[in-house]
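Worked problem 6 (solution included).
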Amino acid sequence: MKTTILLAAAALFAGNALAAKDDFNRADLGSKWVQTAPALYIADQALQGDSMAAGYFTRSEGANRASAVIALGSTSVEYGAILIGDIAGGSNIFVKLQSQDGSGNFSHGAFYVGNNGGGSFFALDAPVASPAKVTVLVNGSLATMTIKSALGTQSYTYDYGYAIGTGAGLGTYGSVRLDDFKTKAVVSEVRQQPSVLRQGGADLSR
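Solution. The predicted structure is:
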């Protein structure tokens, strides 16, 4: 009986060790974050930053799933991005939700690399209201972005063609706000089929 309890406690501890979160309810970003492209900062209990600012969460080691609530601050071009992989080394994926049509909704997404680097930029199947919760799950070479907002749920999967690493971070453009950041190491047995992505035209953040 005692052995069973100890094993269960150990399993619970191990599971919790692979999960981390940041609600940004403090004044300064602090040592939890390493900025790879300044400047990220906390304002009004949310993460904000300069255009094309990025960084990684030091407590997300081993994480292949990350989520954040992304809110627009204007009708100008803005994005919030979730980064997964070796962000310090620049070999990470960069999955973003972007507004660029002046509607006040999110209109585009991208499966990029690095910091707003190359990849696939696409038009969303339907507008996404702000704020929106974005979850990115990596499974081998596949990255799935799930978006939930007041206008419903959308999901997109992209095949990068190589095994994606672990670790998570965030990126900003414009006056976007990111909050309730959560990361976790998960095992997924389901391999989604890559989505047929609609042409997005020009990416106005590049």
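Discussion: Confidence is low (pLDDT under 50) at residues 1-17.
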